[in-house]
Amino acid sequence: GAGVSQTPSNKVTEKGKYVELRCDPISGHTALYWYRQSLGQGPEFLIYFQGTGAADDSGLPNDRFFAVRPEGSVSTLKIQRTERGDSAVYLCASSPDRQSSRKTQYFGPGTRLLVL
Amino acid sequence: AQKITQTQPGMFVQEKEAVTLDCTYDTSDPSYGLFWYKQPSSGEMIFLIYQGSYDQQNATEGRYSLNFQKARKSANLVISASQLGDSAMYFCAMRAGGTSYGKLTFGQGTILTVHP
Fold first, then answer.
1. pLDDT 10s digit of each residue in chain B, 116 long?
2. Is residue A96 less than 8 Å (CB to CB) from chain B?
3. Cβ of A87 under 8 Å from any chain B Cβ?
4. Which of residues 67-86 of A touch B (CB under 8 A)?
5. Rounded to an integer, what distance in angstroms lies between the CA atom of residue B112 and that of residue B42?
């Protein structure tokens, strides 16, 4: 079956612009995570959704970052007034449910964001 | 707070030989899970293996095994019979605490190069 998909695969924007990154989890997966991976680093947690609600947004770096999952499937990560330091790969992962997510998460290919 | 340490920035191995990638962790929670992910140059994170803190036996998945030494807080990945396709970045990660979901903390990664 289809894995986690993310669009766009690459995004180049200018400093100060607004961007939206989309994640399509595996069908039926209720747990969804966003991570950010800077060059040469491991991924860092941003936010976790269980269903439609953000159960943990403690990893969002500041109020320029926001994420939604209105129908409990697709999620959008929104970044306002982008800064050069936001340049990174944004990874999405999903898991069948809260319990399953304790043992495995399935990652998408990521969106490479470059802020000029 | 949880911390994962991978002290080997890069490792080299001859094809068909075994290799061990080191991972140590730090947490005060009695319940936690340890993961290894592979990230090829394409960027996608591929789940390899999981070990729960209460699991009595070391986890194995095909050519991958996890050498779990709880007292030393280490969770090394052993890859047997290395293949050229094993060349990639490898991340150790931890899910800690009594939280009922799988927020992961990642290490810095180890780049593995398999020589023919």
1. 789 999 999 999 999 999 999 999 999 888 889 999 999 998 889 999 999 999 989 999 999 999 999 999 999 999 999 999 999 999 999 987 655 577 899 999 999 999 99
2. no
3. no
4. none
5. 15
